[in-house]
Write a structure and sequence with these properties.
Elements lengths: L4 H28 L12 H5 L2 H11 L5 E3 L5 H11 L4 H5 L29 H18 L11 E6 L6 H12 L5 E7 L12 H11 L3 E5 L3 H8 L3 H10 L2 H10 L1 H12 L4 H7 L3 H8 L7 H9 L7 E6 L21 H10 L18 H10 L28 E2 L1 H14 L3 H5 E6 L8 H7 L1 E2 L7 H4 L10 E2 L4 E4 L3 H11 L2 H4 L5 E6 L8 H9 L5 E4 L18 H7 L3 E4 L4 H14 L9 E5 L5 E2 L7 H9 L1 E5 L7 E6 L3 H11 L7 E5 L2 H17 L8 H6 L7 E6 L4 H4 L1 H5 L3 E4 L10 H8 L3 H11 L13
Parallel strand pairs: 1-2, 2-3, 3-5, 4-5, 7-10, 7-11, 8-9, 11-12, 12-14, 13-14, 17-18, 17-19, 19-20
Antiparallel strand pairs: 6-15, 16-18
Helix pairs in contact: 1-3, 1-4, 3-15, 6-7, 6-22, 9-10, 12-13, 12-14, 18-20, 18-26, 22-24, 25-29, 28-34
The protein binds thiamine diphosphate and magnesium ion (MG).
């Protein structure tokens, strides 16, 4: 227990070391490392110091190996310092903090070497991730997996200004709906943000809000020195003054020091005997030590608060802190980017007994026996199992997924049918898929899957309509066996849940294959969370539908234009936009495999789908066609040797492209029709091939698109068309230097029928013909599509 003074002494010594090492890391990056022009490290020193005691208490004493932590972005030097003491971070990387391949500015699962559980950086997202990680842990255990491992706590170290981020509130509500457990959020209540001092009384708002959502709230305001002083005669008057002191003033006095506190206390409390004596008994330094002994800086108080939790309810700790505690700019409102000067650092170094040249020595300056400190670190429960990242075997995916074809279908319908087929069987694949949707389960065609596999809830909940025998197409029975997580309408939550589900193999040692559905335009609503999930290397599949202007009668507000470009640009996400359902089948099978690859090639998958029902092509799915679909393109109609023009299309406009080729055929020779299933894969393959040829001269590797376009004559034109931004395919002209016309959608919001809108945006058959004409010399094209 941490009431043991010897243990507390060790913990406090290590915390002092962590403050030193984290500050030195930052100082080193700014003043010592050569060639650091432009690499000034702001926003770390003060922000880090705030959390030193809290994080030391957690990592050196409270945490267990199964616990997982999201660390406030700017506390990264503190995290790295702790890992350095544990032996999981190198001096070299600390010396290279924020440099190329050095320790990261914000803790990163993928770029740091020291066992980061959740990346942070975009404030708010790591916080919510812990909540969803806890729900995922419950999901895994409810399905009978990972029972041989103890349950972990999911912990976030949260900046108080970070709490402004809306995604945190969205997550809180979702957590309440799902009976959240095992989650701790520790708010670093330093009452400062980046720019300023926060509003008075914020803690009260936090407290009410958390209680409202079923959380316990523990406020750690006073350190043990303060609590002792409050018990002295006059102590209650001092406590009253502290409680009533405005945030700004308290911060300012912490910056100014003991004498300033003394003056204010005298002026404001007046001469009241006992309290005056209490103050006068202390020197300026002692008074400052007392007044800055807030709960968050007091090892005993923090350990007590954490250790007192003997239940699995979610807990919010509001720990009072001072930004920059222990450093010359503590409490100053401008300290966010504050850095110690060389002179300040020298003075501080001397006070810490750190000899020049010994700055990185683990126990330099501490009076405790180094062997005892080393043993203490080795025995810290958190560190007992070394690195804590788990893995899970690959789930087998059939070469091809089956579905019952009909002559006319939409890709969205195909997606639903394919999942339904999987749900009917009893494969391992079927049991590891988990779906989620933000209130658009039925409208994105997940209904059949949910009917078969059920909704997930920790406790059984019958669908009342079903038990009352009221006819309904959908079964909403919920149980711990269910495989669909229904979310409220919040796309940020959807992607953070994907991030948590998609890391289950690393966190729970049990692989899940998460599939999310949402309307395509709302990718943009959750985009930062999607980016964050990819950055963490979480693995999931997103089916976004309906998309583009093709959703015509659904309304202009739901049209998406930029998403194909997002799909191309998003790192870690392979994007596809199939036109036919047999392509969807190939892509989904590929996707489930791609989500499990650990060779640096894998990632998540985005399917941009459509509600437009179109004539399906009847064909055999050959292995060649299959790999061409996943590589991004194939000839739906091969160009002849003298091709004057080819049409390259993506997605739902396939019928227009096919029609245009038919109409052009009379007056233009050898026209080809290129089906592009993934502009993203195609483009990525092209850039990779160029890089390979540059890096290894003499290598003749050609990318898929280079091979496809190779037979085209020089003067052949390329018309590209999709229901999305034209830039998505416009680059095709540069692959081999062909002239190109890129058609697509650039404006937003007009409703109408599909025909109206395709005509309006210039992506109908006639627009394709016009573009083809402008690229070729021959006679005008005689036949046009007739207006309907
Ligand atoms: C989404 C997002 N917006 C803005 C920022 C820039 N930023 C970094 S930290 C911060 C606020 C810091 O305040 P707080 O969370 O209270 O942490 P403290 O530094 O006080 O410990 C801001 C605005 C960011 N990292 N992420
Ligand atoms: Mg703050």
């Amino acid at each position: 227990m941490t009431t043991d003074p010897a243990r507390l002494e060790m913990l406090s010594a290590l915390a002092r070391k962590v403050l030193w090492l984290s500050s030195w890391t930052i100082h080193h990056a700014n003043h010592i490392r050569p060639n650091v022009d432009g690499l000034k490290v702001g926003g770390h020193q003060a922000s880090s110091a705030s959390l030193v005691t809290i994080m030391s208490a957690l990592y050196f004493s409270v945490l267990r190996p199964q616990d997982r932590v999201a660390v406030k972005p700017h506390a990264s030097p503190v995290f790295h310092a702790i890992q350095y003491l544990f032996g999981h971070q190198s001096r070299e990387k600390l010396e290279n903090f924020r440099g190329f391949k050095g320790a990261q500015s914000y803790p990163s699962r993928t770029k740091d070497v020291d066992d980061v559980d959740f990346s942070t950086g975009s404030v708010g997202l790591g916080v919510a991730q812990t909540l969803f990680a806890s729900l995922v842990q419950d999901y895994v255990r409810a399905h009978g997996w990972a029972k041989d491992r103890p349950e972990g706590r999911m912990i976030a170290l949260v900046g108080d200004a970070e709490m402004d981020e809306g995604n945190i509130f969205e997550a809180l509500l979702e957590g309440w709906k799902h009976g959240l457990r095992n989650t701790w959020w520790v708010v670093d209540y330093n009452r400062q943000s980046l720019d300023a001092v926060v509003r008075e009384g914020l803690w009260e708002k936090f407290e009410t809000m958390f209680r409202n959502f079923g959380w316990d709230v523990v406020i750690v305001k006073y350190g043990s020195l303060m609590r002792k002083a409050f018990a002295e005669p006059g102590g209650q008057a001092l406590k009253k003054w502290i409680d009533e002191c405005p945030n700004q003033l308290y911060s300012a006095l912490c910056f100014q020091g003991g004498a300033a506190f003394r003056k204010h206390l005298r002026d404001e409390i007046g001469d009241q005997g006992a309290v005056t004596q209490l103050i006068d008994r202390r020197s300026d330094d002692q008074l400052l030590e007392l007044m800055s002994n807030l709960g968050g800086h007091d090892m005993a108080s923090m350990c007590e608060a954490f250790e007192a939790i003997d239940h699995d309810r979610p807990v919010c700790f509001i720990a009072y802190t001072i930004k920059g505690i222990g450093l010359p700019f503590q409490g100053h409102k401008d300290n966010h980017a504050g850095l110690m000067t060389v002179a300040q650092m020298e003075k501080w170094r001397a006070a810490q007994n750190i000899r020049p040249g010994r700055e990185w020595d683990k126990f330099e300056g501490l009076s405790q026996d180094p062997a005892a400190l080393e043993a203490f670190l080795a025995n810290a429960p958190f560190n007992r199992e070394g690195r804590r990242r788990l893995s899970a075997p690959v789930i087998e995916v059939p070469e091809r997924l089956s579905f019952t074809p009909s002559s006319q279908m939409s890709t969205q319908q195909g997606f639903g049918l394919l999942l339904n087929e999987i749900a009917r069987g009893d494969s391992e694949l079927a049991s590891r898929i988990v779906t989620a949707s933000p209130d658009v389960t039925v409208s994105t065609n997940l209904g059949a899957w949910v009917n078969r596999r059920g909704l997930f809830a920790r406790a059984e909940k019958a669908d009342l309509f079903r038990s009352e025998k009221i006819p309904s197409t959908f079964n909403w029975d919920a149980s711990p066996r269910g495989q669909h997580i229904e979310l409220g309408i919040a796309e940020m939550n959807l992607f953070i849940l994907m991030s948590a589900l998609g890391l289950s193999h690393a966190i729970n040692g049990e692989r899940l294959l998460p599939v999310a559905t949402l309307y395509d335009p709302f990718i943009e609503r959750g985009l930062d969370a999607l980016n964050y999930a990819c950055y963490q290397d979480a693995r999931f599949m997103v089916a976004a539908t309906p998309s583009g202007v093709t959703l015509a009668p659904e309304g202009g507000a739901h049209q998406s234009i930029a998403t194909p470009l997002i799909g191309m640009a998003q790192d870690g996400l392979a994007s596809f936009e199939p036109a036919f359902v047999d392509e969807v089948a190939v892509i989904m099978a590929f996707g489930f495999r791609h989500m499990q690859r650990e060779d640096g090639e894998g990632g998540s998958v985005y399917l941009r789908l459509s509600t437009r029902s179109i004539d399906q092509v009847q064909r055999m799915m050959t292995p060649d066609l299959q790999s061409a679909i996943t590589e991004g393109a194939y000839w739906l109609r091969k160009p002849g040797p003298n091709a004057e023009v080819i049409i390259a299309y993506t997605g739902a406009v396939a019928p227009e492209a096919i029609e245009a080729v038919g109409l052009l055929g009379e007056s233009r020779r050898d026209i080809g029709l290129l089906a592009i299933t993934s502009a993203d894969q195609l483009h990525a393959g092209w850039t990779a091939a160029r890089k390979l040829r540059r890096d290894r001269r003499g290598v003749q590797h050609l990318s898929h698109i280079e091979k496809l376009l190779a037979p085209l004559p020089r003067e052949c034109g390329i018309v590209t068309v999709l229901d999305g931004h034209p830039a998505t395919l416009a680059w095709l002209g540069s692959v081999r230097g062909h002239r190109a016309e890129a058609l697509g959608v650039e404006h937003f919001g007009q409703t109408g029928t599909i025909d109206d809108l395709y005509r309006h945006h210039g992506i109908d058959a006639n627009a394709i013909i016009d573009a083809a004409e402008s690229l070729t010399a021959g006679a005008p094209v005689r036949h046009r599509k007739m207006a309907v």
